[in-house]
Amino acid sequence: MKISLGPISYCWSKSDVETFYQAVATSNIDTVYLGETVCSRRRELKFSDYLALANMLKSHGKQVILSTMALVEAQSELHELTRAINNGDFCIEANDMAGVYYAHQAKVPFVCGPTINNYNRASLDLLHQKGMFRFVMPCELSKDWLQAVINTDTKPSFEIEVLGHGYMPLAHSARCFTAKHYQLPKDSCQTICQRHSKGLLAQTQESQPLLRLNGIQTQSAAQVNLINQIPTMINMGVDYWRISPNKLADIALADTLTNLLNKAQFNDLAQVAITNTQSKDCNGYWLGLPGMDYNPQANNASF
Amino acid sequence: MELLCPAGNLASLKAALNAGADAVYLGLKDDTNARSFAGLNFSAEQLAQATTLAHSQGRKVFLTINTFPKPGHEQRWYQAVDLAAKLNMDALIVADLSLLNYAHQHHPHLPLHLSVQASATNLGALSFYKEAFNIERAVLPRVLSIKQVRDLAKVSPVDLEVFAFGSLCIMAEGRCHLSSYVTGQSPNTGGSCSPANHVRWQDSGTDKLTRLNNVLIDKAQAHQQLGYPVVCKGRYVAQYDQDAKYLLESPTSLNTLSLIPQLAQAGIASLKIEGRQRSPAYVSQVTQVWRSAIDTYLAAPNEFAEQAQWSQALAKVSEGQITTLGAYERQWQ
């Protein structure tokens, strides 16, 4: 199993993004996804900027995949999508069926991201025929669900990736919730979402953290944390364990995990898990529970 | 322009037909559809009755199979497809790739409508489903503005159906995990959003509260109305803020009566009324109004104006009594 770094879901300044990927370049992380996946109004980085970063990371030996938008509505967004697909070098992560369609047409191998509805083996096999070489499990699915997808007569001919750490993408809307919060019309939003480098936290009236507003995307308030499940996932045949980054320090976590996996030092994982677990984390989906739930016992049981 | 109405049971089906629905959509009594509520939906026998009844009146009936087959249990979904074919139903409303493939391979003459749960919002996605499974129609998610609907209709390789009235999903349907994040059950997997067995209405004397799996969704004073607790329509407190607000959406419902001319001119094939979980009285009331509105438009397209009595009749059955154009109106976004 390898550690992968998912795309940055937030609107960061160009210099912050560049600083982030410079640090990634010097890490031991194997696989890096990058690109804007949430909102086409975010133009801090142009496609050419992402392509330059992709080439820089490639020159440092990284496997680079260009991530594309989850919600594609306007013709201009389709144009951007096909531009990413026809980059001439890198594979793409399709996060909408339009990505699947155009990648298949262009014969560009693709990863199906977590917002493509892949709930069973027959659907995955069908997408594999269209050029999908890896899929990221939709975040609401569980270990048992994934096991049932894997447990058929034939071994999957595609790779499996699971979101192991980070805030989960729960929903996408036409409405920009960040702009709405600041009483700005979406069409003149000033990319106000840039104010919140890990989304805007929303709590219930009983101060329970619930959601994270990230433009048109709604994320979980809690970070999914499946560090302790890594040995289980290796046994199941999961190929990639994704970190969805929200801060520079996530690179260090990805790096640490990469080094442990490279040296097969699974016993050290327990300590990394303890160091990197907060009381506000969650692991419910993986355990077949409400996604927001956190069951520390289940974590311990996997060692 | 077809008027497509919901039916959660035979009484609702009859109500829809009597009130002038051109077509009715319904689901089986299991987790093959995303309105899997206790006491709702059709057994195989009832489905046969419903189909016979609709066909005897020259109307159409569609079977909704819009959840995603669970690994190891796929047979249940395949059997639902076979049943619809056997009964000569007029179309299947399907979201899952493997199920579209199964239906296309085994019953090529049974028309396929792409469910809103497949979340196809653009030409690329529609082309994919058309070319792979020869879908005849797609139901558009409630995320497009009226201009985007119009633009898409111009180039779409398939007929388009849009939501005209009912509860308002504000997320791209089929890709929303808010319900499962809080309750463990989602429309995609378990068959419902915010399942009733997780809902609690509380009265603290001064306040009324609604909870979903114990999470406080909304709180109001005793005399105020509270909507059914869904995560996207709760009142929450944003970081750096003091007051609780409807950060995503307030309890409103969709009403597009005023858009009838624009939808018709765009060439939209079908107007869908939401609400398989609602009562026969709701179905009857809403179908009557929409029948009247569509007929009024068709009789004199250039003179169409929304009539006050329609809106009044619809307001009575609308959630929270407030209606919106939702994403059709760019300003809402």
Describe the overall structure.
- The complex is a heterodimer of chains A (303) and B (333).
- Chain A is 34% helix and 20% strand.
- Chain A is built from eleven helices and eleven strands.
- The radius of gyration of chain A is 18 Å and the shape is globular.
- In chain A, 54% of the residues are buried.
- Chain B is an alpha/beta fold and 333 residues long.
- Chain B contains ten helices and 15 strands.
- In chain B, the strands form three sheets. Chain B has an eight-stranded parallel beta barrel, surrounded by six helices. Chain B has a three-stranded antiparallel β-sheet with strand order 8-9-10, with no helix packed on it.
- In chain B, helix 6 links the parallel strand 6 and strand 7.
- The radius of gyration of chain B is 20 Å and the shape is globular.
- The two termini of chain B are 27 Å apart.
- Chains A and B meet through helix 3, helix 4, helix 5, helix 6 and strand 7 of A and helix 4, helix 5, helix 7, strand 10 and strand 11 of B.
- Strand 8 of chain A pairs antiparallel with strand 11 of chain B.
- Chain B: Keywords: 4Fe-4S, Hydrolase, Iron, Iron-sulfur, Metal-binding, Protease, Ubiquinone biosynthesis.
- Chain B: Its cofactor is [4Fe-4S] cluster.
- Chain B: Pathway: Cofactor biosynthesis; ubiquinone biosynthesis.
- Chain B: One of its GO terms (biological process) is proteolysis.
Pick out its properties:
heterodimer; A: 303 residues; alpha/beta; TIM Barrel; B: 333 residues; three-stranded antiparallel beta sheet; 32% helix; iron-sulfur (chain A); iron (chain A); RNA/ubiquinone_mod_enzymes (chain A); metal-binding (chain A)
